[in-house]
Automatic annotation (TrEMBL):
The encoding gene: SIRT5
Source species of the chain: Tetraodon nigroviridis
Alphabetical list of CDD domains matching this protein: SIRT5_Af1_CobB (cd01412)
Active site: 128
Cofactor field: Zn(2+)
Annotated localization: Mitochondrion; Cytoplasm, Cytosol; Nucleus
UniProt domain Deacetylase sirtuin-type: residue ranges: 3-277
The record's free-text note on cofactor binding: Binds 1 zinc ion per subunit.
UniProt entry tagged with the keyword Nucleus: yes
Protein name according to UniProt: NAD-dependent protein deacylase sirtuin-5, mitochondrial
């Protein structure tokens, strides 16, 4: 597809916003970073001496579920102690307001911390799963789990410092399924590196991409596939796509607009009530 030169004309974006009936908002780790959730890139790329992408794999979990669960206990603890920021709240408020007008907003997120839901967003498609869900490796049951720590053996575990030794928790003391007659080992219900996205979620995402008439790409580096192509694919249909990020990304040139700066600063005025909206 041909590249275009994105602009930062907020009045033009707001005109597109005022006409849009189905808005898709694609969010990435940059949104959560403004709430203090590490992006696990750059200076936060390592936990202890391991790269996060080397821990978040089915092979790593199979080899050393204790270490991987320590890593995820750390991530869960971080997420459970953070609050939605101005960007999360602006998206949720916009969705609620536009719903009353017969318009729709869907959040297609790579984030796994559930801060969008905490902010009040209702229509959220989590393409990488959730830190707050577990999946049983024996019976397949998926359950919401916000306990902290997730099990007693992980209490006080998961410190990220490189000099902290592995806890070597016995596998029978790791999170287990509480369904009757199961007791199978639980894993985070997330898409590990090397795994494919949930086909049901992907189908829903594809349908939203087909009907949206305005797209916002917010706080994502646009380098993790397949999510990195969601915005460009929507743009290829001629739909206006606006990127909100602290810097340009490899996909910026494909978008109509680019608004640079913290999402918590740039997004609220972009999604605020337009003068053309009726007040119910």
């Amino acid at each position: 597809m041909d590249a275009i030169r994105p602009n930062s004309d907020m009045l033009e974006f707001r005109e597109n916003f005022s006409k849009a009936k189905h808005i898709a908002i694609i969010t990435g780790a940059g949104v959560s970073a403004e709430s203090g959730v590490p992006t696990f890139r750059g200076e936060n790329e390592k936990w202890r001496k391991w790269l996060s992408q080397d821990l978040a794999t089915p092979e790593a979990f199979s080899r050393n579920p204790s270490r991987v669960w320590e890593f995820y206990q750390y991530r869960r603890d971080m997420a459970l102690n953070k609050k939605p920021n101005a960007a999360h709240l602006a998206i949720a408020e916009c969705e609620a307001r536009l719903r009353k007008q017969g318009r729709s907003v869907v959040v297609i997120t790579q984030c796994i911390d559930d801060l969008h839901q905490q902010a009040g967003s209702k229509h959220v498609l989590r393409v990488h799963g959730s830190l707050m869900e577990t999946r049983c490796l024996s019976c397949g049951d998926v359950s919401v789990n916000r306990r902290n720590p997730i099990c007693s053996s992980l209490k006080g575990k998961g410190a990220p410092d490189p000099d902290v030794a592995d806890a070597h928790i016995p596998v029978d003391k790791l999170p287990r399924c509480d369904k009757s007659d199961c007791n199978g080992l639980l894993r985070p219900n997330m898409v590990f590196f090397g795994e494919t996205m949930d086909s049901h979620i992907l189908t829903k995402v594809e349908k939203e991409m087909e009907v949206c008439d305005l797209c916002l790409v917010v706080g994502t580096s646009s380098i993790v596939y397949p999510a990195a192509m969601f915005g460009p694919l929507i743009a290829s249909r001629g739909v206006p796509v606006a990127e909100f990020n602290t810097k340009s990304t490899p996909k910026t040139e494909y978008f109509t607009h680019h608004f640079q700066g913290p999402c918590g600063t740039t997004l609220p005025p972009a999604l605020a009530q337009h003068e053309s909206e009726f007040i119910s």
